[in-house]
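Postdoc handover notes: sequence design on the structure in folder B. Input tokens:
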């Protein structure tokens, strides 16, 4: 793989001061770069001239960016195809509960923590623009990285892939491409 991970995620807001307050005070991110972006045709960028595009340090050498669009535009539906369903931030297990309490202390409603099976424990909240955010952690007690924590056994992966593909060769093709755990039970 030639990527190291996320350079930045970019969301859309319509009130930059509110976004700045939420992402610094509630999420604990640091504002690290502020700029304006001129519109250029055929680059797939936002269709507005001279937009604010501010960047926040979200940890692990990754950035969270906010574009400020004009007010009054309709809100996106996160549950439609092409929408962003949510953004999940990994939180080390030792800091998970304290982060949830700090966010609640900022007056933000938090749903959870919720056990989602296996290593997954999550808590959910919404930013002021309706974007669903997730704090995710591994409460299994195992000391693994994020990717290693989601690896499945061949049997687990096969069972799911067989619900997607009726052709056995297609299932085998995907299994050959996946890193798999050797154990038979999810830790």
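Designed sequence:
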């Amino acid at each position: 793989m030639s990527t190291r991970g996320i350079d930045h995620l970019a969301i859309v807001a319509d009130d930059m001061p509110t976004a700045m307050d939420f992402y610094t005070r509630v999420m604990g991110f640091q504002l690290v770069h502020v700029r304006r972006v001129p519109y250029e045709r055929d680059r797939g960028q936002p269709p507005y001239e001279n937009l604010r595009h501010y960047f926040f340090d979200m940890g692990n050498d990754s950035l969270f960016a906010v574009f400020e669009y004009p007010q009054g535009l309709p809100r996106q539906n996160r549950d439609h195809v092409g929408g962003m369903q949510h953004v999940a931030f990994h939180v080390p297990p030792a800091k998970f509960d304290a982060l949830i309490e700090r966010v609640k202390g900022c007056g933000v409603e938090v749903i959870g923590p919720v056990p989602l099976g296996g290593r997954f424990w999550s808590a959910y909240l919404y930013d002021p623009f309706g974007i669903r955010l997730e704090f995710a952690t591994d409460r299994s007690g195992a000391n693994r990285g994020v990717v290693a924590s989601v690896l499945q056994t061949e049997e687990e992966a096969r069972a799911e892939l067989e619900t997607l593909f009726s052709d056995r060769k297609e299932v085998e093709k995907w299994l050959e491409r996946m890193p798999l755990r050797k154990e038979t039970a999810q830790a």
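Context for whoever picks this up: The mean pLDDT is 88. Don't rerun without checking with the PI first.
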